[in-house]
Structure formats: structure tokens, C-alpha cells
Specification:
homodimer; 12 strands; globular
């Protein structure tokens, strides 16, 4: 099937205490986003990327795309106020029935094995959401109490969240809700059962300065 | 009130791919365990430590205790096959009604502010469990389905888990159950309501080589 990766890098990233959005910070001399693009470009020769960026950073994104040498496979669009709107903007550029990967631009350590694992399950079952099991004790808190839960039941969700395009498109016709913090929640709300696949502990999201150090360490030399 | 810290360092630590148990690995030239001891010794002058170690490593633990210069405030006991049993062994050395901190030996970045926050709430309410809110999307998986949950409800539990000693002792009279993965679960099972306090993102558990790097980075220079 045709393959699109919507890479969401629409954040303005202030948690790093830094003017540069996280996706543009350098890791071994290249922007984080470069590695995210590279992983998807290399996973499948026929995959196309839709890169969602803040309007003000589209030019910077185009330079990174050039540096991959595969800029003809990369389209651009601007992000919205929410992740939901950013993904919806990207999805509007998917013109063919396909498998769509929705990926956090700052998860630059994603492996080709994980991308392929998601593709295979999504092609077969309609969707594939990578997840890892919680390693620490977890409690669930509600208004008036909190209670322990078996940590093996707690799945920490990663990306690429991967879907048949038409199923994703139908889900994104729903009105926005506040709990639409990831695509799985949007698709689930449309009545579709979510399929988890095994994620990868090294598929980290770079949101704090220390994550950059960890990424330096994890990157093959 | 009197104060005891049961520091649990009974693991033989093979996940590091290393013969040395994690609690003895060096961080800026000192064993991880040294920093955990230091944090509790410095938090309260009248606090005593009960250090739970694998039988084979008690001598090594005594050397670290010597290096703190406060070895007269540190007792030793050997660990059991489970965390439950290790804590129970430590608890048997608490001879007075007191506030008991149960702490992971490999959480060497614990701050004195967090120790004091736990003390204050435990003294007032009987227990205090430090927790941080999940930063990523979470799903809860059961036998036949998985469903999204508001991440703000998902609390990642840290240590020191802090209790009135007599409440903890009563809870540890219960027969062992497989889901007793932390002390909060044991105490909750005895019918006591658990009180969460705000944990600390830098209060990491050192279980992977990358965590050591992160700790190097977080340690004040």
C-alpha cells in the first residue's frame, strides 16, 4: 500500500528553556528533526512525508528536508493550535488510500524495525499503536480517591501511531474533544478498536535537556 | 517524632549488563548508594538508617556507611526474595513508634525537600507517597481490550514511601500477595487510604546505563 508519514513538529517548545523549538535542537551536529525524517525515508522507498511545522519555521524545515537529499518526497504544512488540528492539517494532504504513520517529530530515535512492525499490524488490522509497559508502580487518581493498578496493565503510548488513511480520516471528522491527546484516542472515539504493538524503550520523546544527553548516548556511533 | 529510613538495596542488578549491583555503581567517583544515604542523613539529624542489602554485599555496604562519617546512625540487614520480604526484614529493626521512610537505594537523586514533604504529610495523615503525573499518553490494557485514560489521572509512584511505623507494621502482618510491588499497595490492602504528595522528576531510579548519564547531568556540580 501507499505510505505517508505525518511528522508533527508544530510545537514552539519552551520547556527546554530555549528559544529554539525542540525539533530544531542539534544532536551530533544535525537537527533532531533530521533523524526523524531519515528514519521514515529509509524505512520504505515509496513512503512520502508530510511535515507539520509552525508557520514561522517552515523555511527552516525545508532546509532540513534538503539536507536529507530526498526533499521531493517531503511536503509541508503548518500546524494548528492543538495536536488534533495539526494532524488534521497534515491528513488533508494525504490524497490516496494508504497507511498513515503519525509521528512525533521529537521522537528522533525511532527504529526502522518499529516503523515496519507498525506497518504490518496496521495493514492487517487497520491500526497499530506502539506501547511499552510501565516499569514503575502506578496509581490511578480520581476525584476522591487513588488506587494501585497492576503496572503490567499500564501501557505508555509512543508513536508512530499507524492507521489506514480512510479510518483516520473518518475519525478526524468528529468534533474536537479535550481528551484527544493522541490519534488513538480520536480513532477509539469513532468506535474502532485499538491494536497495540510492542514499542521500544529507546524511542524516547525529547522534551527535556536531559533527553538530548540520553539520545546522544543511544545513537549508534 | 523519631525517624527511620529503610533503604532497600537488595537487588543483584543484572539489567545493567554488569556484575556489580546497580546500587554500587559509581557516580562521580562515589557509589550510588552513598548519595542515597547522604540525602537521608542530611535531611534530619535524628534520623537513623536501616540499610537492606544482599547478604553477600553487607561488607561493601559497611564501607560506604563508613565513608559517610555517620556510620553510628546506620544499621544493616539482609534482603529477602521479594521487596516485601526485604522491607519486612528492615522493619523488624524499627524498635520505636516513628515515621518510617522506605526508599529505593538506587534513587540517589532524592532531594531533602522531597524527604521533608513526605515527612510532613505522613506525620499528619499517616502516610505519604510521592508521585508524578504521566507525561505521555497512557492506555490501560485488560484481558480483552485496551482503553485510553486521561494521563492526568495516571500517577507514577516514587519513593520514599513514608508511613507511621505502626500502620506499616500492621500492614506487613498480612500474607504476601503478588501485587505487593510497593509499600503503598501493602498498606492500601490493609484498609488504609493512601495520600499522594508531589514527587520530583529528577528523583529517578537508576536501572539502565543511560540513567547513570542522566544522574551525572542532574547532580549539582
Amino acid at each position: 500500500m501507499r505510505k505517508f508519514a505525518i511528522i508533527v513538529a508544530a510545537g514552539s517548545g519552551t520547556r527546554m528553556g530555549n528559544e529554539t523549538p525542540k525539533q530544531f535542537l542539534l544532536l551530533r551536529g544535525k537537527p533532531i528533526l533530521y533523524y526523524s525524517l531519515r528514519a521514515f525515508l529509509d524505512a520504505y522507498d515509496d513512503l512520502e512525508i508530510i511535515l507539520v511545522l509552525p508557520e514561522a519555521h517552515i523555511e527552516a524545515g525545508k532546509e532540513i528536508a534538503q539536507s536529507t537529499g530526498a526533499q521531493q518526497r517531503i511536503q509541508f504544512t503548518s500546524g494548528g493550535d492543538t495536536r488534533y488540528q495539526s494532524v488534521k492539517n497534515g491528513l488533508s494532504l494525504v490524497k490516496h488510500p494508504s497507511i498513515v504513520f503519525v509521528h512525533d517529530g521529537v521522537r528522533c530515535m525511532v527504529s526502522q524495525e518499529l516503523i515496519r512492525r507498525c506497518y504490518i499490524t496496521a495493514a492487517e488490522k487497520g491500526n497499530a499503536i506502539p506501547a511499552v509497559t510501565a516499569a514503575e508502580s502506578i496509581r490511578i487518581e480520581s476525584t476522591d480517591k487513588n488506587e494501585s493498578i497492576d503496572r503490567r496493565q499500564v501501557k505508555i503510548i509512543q508513536t508512530p501511531q499507524t492507521f489506514h488513511s480512510e479510518l483516520l480520516r473518518a475519525a478526524f471528522e468528529q468534533n474536537y474533544e479535550e481528551n484527544f491527546t493522541d490519534e488513538a484516542a480520536v480513532v477509539e472515539k469513532s468506535g474502532i478498536r485499538i491494536h497495540l504493538v510492542e514499542g521500544d524503550l529507546s524511542n524516547i520523546k525529547i522534551t527535556l535537556p536531559a533527553d538530548l544527553l540520553l539520545a546522544e548516548h543511544l545513537l549508534p556511533s
